[in-house]
Amino acid sequence: MLVIDETGNKIGIMMTRDAVAMARERGLDLVEVASSADPPVARILDFGKYQYTQQKRQRDAKKKQVAQQVKEIKFRTKTEDHDLQTKLKKAKEFLDEGDRVKIHVVYRGREMAHPELGRKMLEKVIAGLADWGAPLEDGAMMGRALITVIAPHPKGNMKKKPEAAKAEPAPEKKEGT
C-alpha cells in the first residue's frame, strides 16, 4: 500500500499494519483514498476533518445545482392568434425562469384525420419560442395529443430583445426596368 502523510508527501510503499501503527503514533487515522489503484493509496489524516470537508464539498455542489421544473401548456389545432400569443407569453415567462415547457397540441373528434393541422400549430409555437428555448425532440404523438418539450437556452446564450431585430428597416425593393 502506498502511504501519503498528512502534509501530502509520499512516504512509500508499506505493509498495512506498519502504516496503521505510524498513523496512531501521530494521533491520526489511515484512510484508503484509491482502492482501485495499483498499489492501493492510503493517506494519514484526521478522519473527522476529512469527513467534514467531504460533506462540505457535497453541500456546495448541491447548492450549485438548479432544479428544473416542467410546465405544461395545451393548445388545440384551432387555437386563435390572440390565445396563441397569450399562451406563448406565459411559456416565455416559464423559459425565462429556467423551467422547461411541455407543449401539448390536443386533437378532438375528427381533427385526428388531419394531423398536419397539429404539426402547423406546433411549428408556430416552436417558432414563437425560438429566442427563448429549443425543442428537445420533434413532436411525438401520445394518444390524442402531439407533444414536445422545449428547454430554455443557457443563460449566456439567451437572445433577449427580439424587438431590436424588428427595429431595423427592411431593405426597399427596387422596381426593375
Structure description:
This protein is of the alpha+beta class and 177 residues long. The protein has two domains: 2-63, Translation initiation factor 3 (IF-3), N-terminal domain (Ubiquitin-like (UB roll), Roll), CATH 3.10.20.80; 70-155, 2-Layer Sandwich (Translation Initiation Factor IF3), CATH 3.30.110.10. It contains five helices and nine strands.
Q: How helical, in percent, are the residues? A: 25-40%
Unreliable stretches: 160-167
The biggest beta sheet reads:
5 strands, mixed
Which class best fits the helix and strand makeup?
alpha+beta
Total helical elements:
5
The global form is rod-shaped
How many domains make up the coordinates? 2
Q: Please name the CATH topology of the largest domain.
A: Translation Initiation Factor IF3
**What is the element string, with H for helices and E for strands?**
EEHEEHEHEHEEEH
CATH hierarchy class name of the largest domain: Alpha Beta
Number of strands: 9
Give the rounded overall mean pLDDT.
85
Which band does the percent of strand residues land in?
25-35%
Measured on Cα atoms, how large is the radius of gyration?
30 Å
Task: Provide the CATH superfamily of the largest domain.
Answer: Translation initiation factor 3 (IF-3), C-terminal domain
Report the span from N to C terminus: 89 Å
Using the 3D structure, state the CATH architecture of the largest domain: 2-Layer Sandwich
